[in-house]
Design brief:
The complex is a heterodimer of chains A (223) and B (100). In chain A, 39% of the residues lie in helices and 8% in strands. With 223 residues, chain A is an alpha+beta fold. Chain A folds into three domains: 56 residues, no CATH class; 44 residues, no CATH class; 93 residues, no CATH class. In chain A, strands 3-1-2-4 form a four-stranded antiparallel beta sheet, with no helix packed on it. In chain A, helix 2 runs antiparallel to helix 3. The termini of chain A are far apart. By secondary structure, chain B is an all-alpha fold. Chain B has one domain. Chain B is 70% helix and 0% strand. In chain B, helix 3 packs across helix 4. The longest helix of chain B is centred in the last third of the chain and has 23 residues. The chains are: A alpha+beta (223), B mainly alpha (100). Chains A and B meet through helix 1, helix 2, helix 3, helix 4 and helix 6 of A and helix 1, helix 2, helix 4 and helix 5 of B.
């Protein structure tokens, strides 16, 4: 019994759905390995293409199954967006990226940073950290201790910081200003911003918001 | 596509970690506190920002203040910085939480 009606044909995308022409491939013979007439049990030559198997002899065979859009295609842009938003480096990544290339172990990290150099999602230096540096260098011991209270740190951590502050207090006022200029102003330029107080009320760096939007301390160093 | 997805997922942990928002500032603070960083290494790191000799001297003295301390003291200072940055991250996620 010849497999007259059987055969496998490549699917062709048409307006009404996926259509297949039975005459496109050589027909298979007989009962293949105990199967029904005309159905080829062997692996198709092009497994990546959609094939239609039919026992009906007609010029066109309509496939009813529509191919579903891959959800994988949706995940990729979502992941890219998540990566962009999560990347806390933002524009600041470019600053220290070149130095990382000297160390081969950090190459992957450096490349990752480079990818997100132009995504300034969270690229605002921590206002609390900047505020702490300013107070550590310029404020009195008592005021500095009071400013740390809001973070509820352990007593030994505060005591340790005050020990270092005692030593730093021995530096001249001009020396402390110069260190402050490096640690606060210069490093804030990695985001192309002056060290700004946050405009959000809940952030610890800014109990009273600056009316200028810029820390008064930063204005000393802009000249 | 699956490989690209896998690579993206592998990249996420490298990018999504709590930080101060400025890697350069974080590195500077870390190098300031670390007892393993010498005065020479510290000044070399800050060299692009040091314009005059008196600034270099100030930076040296500043670093020496940290090197004078015990390892335990410096560990506590480091702990304080971590608390500070993490509290910033917490408040950044929910900025409507008002501080007392």
């Amino acid at each position: 019994m010849e497999g007259e009606h059987g055969g496998m044909a490549p699917a062709l995308a048409q307006e009404g759905g996926l259509l297949a022409r039975p005459g496109d491939l050589p027909r298979t013979s007989g009962l293949d390995q105990g199967g029904s007439p005309g159905i080829n049990r062997s692996t198709p030559r092009h497994p990546h293409r959609l094939w239609c198997q039919s026992a009906v002899h007609s010029p066109f065979v309509t496939l009813t199954a529509q191919s579903k859009p891959s959800s994988m295609k949706l995940y990729l842009p979502l992941l890219l967006a998540a990566l962009g938003l999560c990347s806390h480096e933002g524009e600041s990544a470019g600053g220290s990226m070149l130095s990382n290339f000297r160390n081969p172990r950090e190459n992957f990290s450096s490349i990752t940073k480079f990818l997100f150099t132009f995504v300034p999602a969270n690229a605002i230096p921590c206002p609390a950290l900047q505020d702490e540096i300013i107070k550590f260098l310029m404020s009195t011991k008592y005021l500095f201790k009071m400013s740390l209270r809001k973070f509820n740190p352990p007593e030994e951590a505060v005591a340790a910081k005050l020990l270092v502050k005692d030593c730093v207090a021995n530096l001249s006022f001009l020396s402390r200003i110069r260190i402050l200029k490096i640690l606060v102003t210069s490093f804030s330029l990695c985001t192309r911003l002056l060290p700004r107080h946050s405009q959000e009320e809940g952030w610890p760096a800014c109990p009273q918001r600056c009316s200028w939007g810029v820390c008064p301390a930063a204005l000393l160093f802009t000249a | 596509m699956k490989l690209a997805l896998l690579l993206m997922l592998a990249t996420l942990p490298f990018c999504c970690y709590a930080g101060a928002g400025c890697q350069l500032l974080e590195d500077a603070v870390e190098k300031t506190i670390s007892p393993n960083v010498t005065v020479a290494e510290y000044t070399e790191f800050l060299q692009p920002f040091i314009s005059i000799k008196s600034t270099k001297e100030a930076v040296k003295k500043f670093k020496e203040c940290f090197l004078m301390q015990s390892d335990e003291t410096l560990a506590n200072v480091q702990l304080l910085m971590v608390i500070l940055v993490l509290s910033f991250m917490r408040l950044k996620i929910t900025p409507w939480n008002k501080q007392p």
